[in-house]
Specification:
Order of helices and strands: HEEEEHH
Strand order of the largest sheet: 1-2-3-4
Largest sheet: 4 strands, antiparallel
Radius of gyration: 15 Å
Distance between the termini: 16 Å
Structural class: alpha+beta
Strand content: 35-45%
CATH architecture: Roll
Oligomer: single chain
Number of helices: 3
Length: about 110
């Protein structure tokens, strides 16, 4: 996936592409951190789900830094722990078209493929 997304539609398209490959089942260990800047919130969480093509479960740990203004997210940055995703990945690959799409989107490891 591209590293930068602009606007609501860019983010919506990002999540639709991920939803074609992954099913997100639950969040755990959610921690919200307040900062000295009232617009900035930092969230830590573990995301659990499964790969749609194989049913293989995955888990990944994230940190998200968001700037919220007037009730809207105006900027966000996500950080993932690739070691956690690698520990839950499968060696089976989806059909070639999906593999190429996932690889090109730079989410192949997080998607549980490798």
């Amino acid at each position: 996936m591209p590293f930068r997304f602009e606007g609501r539609e860019g983010h919506r398209a990002r999540f639709e592409r991920a939803g074609a490959v992954l099913r997100q089942d639950r969040l755990e260990n959610v921690v919200l951190h307040e900062t000295t800047d009232p617009e900035v919130v930092i969230a830590e969480y573990d995301l659990h789900g499964h790969v749609l093509s194989s049913g293989q479960p995955f888990a990944s740990t994230y940190v998200m830094v968001m700037r919220i203004r007037d009730g809207l997210i105006v900027h966000s940055r996500d950080y993932a722990d690739p070691r956690r995703a690698a520990a839950t990945r499968t060696s089976s690959r989806p059909p070639e078209g999906r593999w190429r799409q996932a690889r090109d989107q730079r989410c192949w490891l997080a998607c549980g493929h490798g």
